Amino acid sequence: MKDGKALTGMQNIDNVNVYFDADGKQVKGDTRHVNGSTYHFEKDSGQLTRSAFASDKNGNWYYLGQDGKALIGKQVIDNIPLYFYPNGVQAKDAFVVLDGNSYYFQKDTGQLVRDRFWSDDDGNWYYSDKEGKLLTGEQTIDGFDMYFYPDGVQAKGEIVTIGIEPYYFDKDSGHKVINTDITINGKTYHAEANGLLIETEQKLPQRPLVSGGHFQEDSSGNWYYYTATGEKLKGWQNVDGVTLYFDEEGRQAKDGERIIDGSHYYFSHYSGAVKTNYWHTWSIEIRRQEPFAKTYYEYYGSDGRRYYGWHRVGDQLYYFDHTGRVENGLTIFKGQNYLFDNHGKLVKDAFYIQSLRVFVGTLNTSYRSNKFGQVLTGEHHINGDDYYFSNSGSPVTDIVEKGGKDYYYFEGKLLKNYLGPLLKRQELDYDAYYSGIVGTDKDGVLLTGVSTANNGKLYYFENNRNIPKMFTVTTPTWKTIDGKLYHLEPSINRTYKHGGRSYTATVREEVDIIDHGVRTKTDKIKRIIGDDFSNLYYLDENNDFYIGHLLPENTDLTKIEETVIQSDNKFYAFNRTSSLSETSPLTVSKTLVYNKKAYLIDDKGVATETKLTNRFEHDDAWNWYYFDNEGKAVTGLHSIDNVTLYFDKEGKQAKGRLVEIDGQTHYFDRDSGAMWTNRTLELNGIRYVIDQNGYVTMNKPGQFIQDRDGDWAYIKENGQLATGLQIINHQKYYFDPTGKQAKGKRLLLDGKYYFFDNDTGAMFVNKFHETGDYFSKKYTYFGEDGSQIFGWATIEGKRVYFKEDGYQVRNDRHKIGDFDYFFKKDGSMLSNDIDGNYKYYYADKDGHLQFGWVTHNNETYYISPPWGAENRTYLKTINEKTYLFGPKGRLLRNTATDTSTSWNGFCISDENGVVKTGVIRLEDNRLYYFNPEIYMTTPFSGEWAEFDGKLYHFEMPISVSPYSKGSPITTNTTLEKDGKTYIIDENGVATEKKD
């Protein structure tokens, strides 16, 4: 008591910590929670327990620390690992999950079990490793393979299916059984060397011989057998040494499959003998549906029953799925994709290329499996490299955005510290196509803006349709980037951009021969990929890039040090160490002249104007300039160090050329730039006289003359050689500083481009100029004053556009300012109409491309952003609804048709254009099933399937359109399935018949 009141809570009395409940009673031999911690008070004195184990009144144990607080979490006390729950109670005879791992603490002591087997009270066995973690899954302990379920219980005396493969583990030791025969639940198996269980082959039972009778056919073509005594045979029979089957009516089973007592058998067409050790093979071809061709294999064993699961046929191991078909590709088992090669062998922990014959050729798709044979999807780390696989399992070749950053994957592999071609895959093109140059950093993130690539050089990666691609130029170029001035070096050895799209040539070293799903030869695929700049890239088996070129015919291959590849009777040379020929690095650490001003370029590529005085400096084309004592670039005639020099109005020094100054022609030395006087000049085979004033003349005024090289010049009336722009007989011509006439050339004069006719040399005025071959024609246009047109223009009443390079946009889409436009084949802008090339677009009255749903001429269209509509019949999912579209994106309502979209075939749309699914009756009055994946179910016969909780049976496939097949649903009949009788109604729904 204190001040007449009972004490409560934690108290210190005579230096002893004690605790009183709210009613004033002292706590003894029990625990209390105070301010988030648990404390214990001794049984006799009630004193706070410290540095000791103690139990509460419920028998729970705790360990109290020096401060009296109960310890929690993992603890080591007297070298014994223990665990205490968050309330301080010690874990005993308990499984505890920590950081995703399970641990077991013993019943009496609470000590963590480590590095040994142990069992619980129910006789289940477990194994804890050295850290105390319960092992799960496949494990090898002391050299023996074992299996532990996800809860840690060891598998003993039972079959365990790991992935898709069954194994048996001994009932006593739990060791995987290998290399022996074993009987399990009445079935005999052979455990292979790796433990895989194979059901032992059974034989047809020996039945009593029946002979002396005769066969008889009824009016419906059914056959019966009557013994010598007139008895009609039923069931399994041995007739004259041949095993036959007769149903309950005595009808003989012939020509195909029958289900007898729940097992599938196959009977001969003519004799009706049951087939044994027999491959049944059939193929289905469905145009406009992929795969274009599919071959199925089933096998009937020695006892005539169809195989399921794992079996050996000869020396080859096969897996037969739930339908009895050999798997030699992707198969779904319990919701997971598994990968089989063309031998039917399960592919484990490896890449594999699956080849399928499809409508457009052969589709080669690679996959990667884990150690169970399951197809990988998503992100994985394999052999030190990062990979990314699509939801279908195919390796990604694309730009992938993660966490706000873009990464480049090729064939699934994340390319790090990479500088090279961006190769992408198109929807219907199964090879890679060049799409520019990209770079990545050490983490595989795409380089953007001005960045240093893996070769130590600076490049500019410009955002191009949301992908930062290297900005490349063919001539030295100044460019302002983010408000800073940079200089780009021209590409090395870059050729002109040729016509046509990029191509892929395939090198096949061997050919596949497949028999019953067994591949007897391998197929190695190597690819040669060309870009749009005549460069070639070679991808080896590891998808490493080699860069090279096509060798001329009759090349002596023995003298080629590079890797030589033959494809299509052509030879290519590749060198892995070659540098990319179309890269344009930024200039660094240099001084250059630009627009008559001097710029100092630092090591980051940033150019800053600088002042030069009384010195020469050159630009990026090696034209020389002179800066006076005020730092200005001089123009005109100047005497520098007592030498007469000339600088044009741009400040460029004249060297090795004729220059007209104040109506007189002068010549300046090609090396020093000094003006010549009192000399004769031999230039291109023409002799000129230069007087003491430096005037250049000759004696053929008012005439065109031709030099020995076939070039033309013009002599003015004063006898001097014409240079620059001249008007002769009302036509404009141009002569270079040496007097040579320009023909068939586009020239930059006073900041504008002009073109001069190839034959006459006359300047083009109001005229198109066409370049390129038949497949890659390009057009430029020169206007009223002869200068080249850039940007928007109206020509002959048509609105047209010329890009920055001067070429007219034709039959292509182009972004101008904030809007996208499409220009038709003649170059005119699309407006208030739909048009396109490979993709189709709708443009409003202003020519702006519109995407999404549009209405045109009372028809509904969908223009897919950003690439446009397709010119074929196809399906597209929009806001979780799948629609049927025709050419140019027109919505097809109430339409039944084939589609050309991958993995889709015949389909039907409703009044809103939405594709129907489920059971549908077609015009032939038969029912078919269209699954939720929006394509007709793969044709098959004699198969049962359950959809939406209802059971259906399918008949033989028939044609439902010129290009597609489907299996009608059986109606209005009675069939047997797994020993049970089912009544099938008019809607195809099968219901078990009840007695």
Automatic annotation (TrEMBL):
<protein>
    <submittedName>
        <fullName>Glucosyl transferase</fullName>
    </submittedName>
</protein>
<dbReference type="InterPro" id="IPR018337">
    <property type="entry name" value="Cell_wall/Cho-bd_repeat"/>
</dbReference>
<dbReference type="Pfam" id="PF01473">
    <property type="entry name" value="Choline_bind_1"/>
</dbReference>
<keyword id="KW-0808">Transferase</keyword>
<dbReference type="Pfam" id="PF19127">
    <property type="entry name" value="Choline_bind_3"/>
</dbReference>
<keyword id="KW-0677">Repeat</keyword>
<dbReference type="GO" id="GO:0016740">
    <property type="term" value="F:transferase activity"/>
</dbReference>
<dbReference type="InterPro" id="IPR027636">
    <property type="entry name" value="Glucan-bd_rpt"/>
</dbReference>
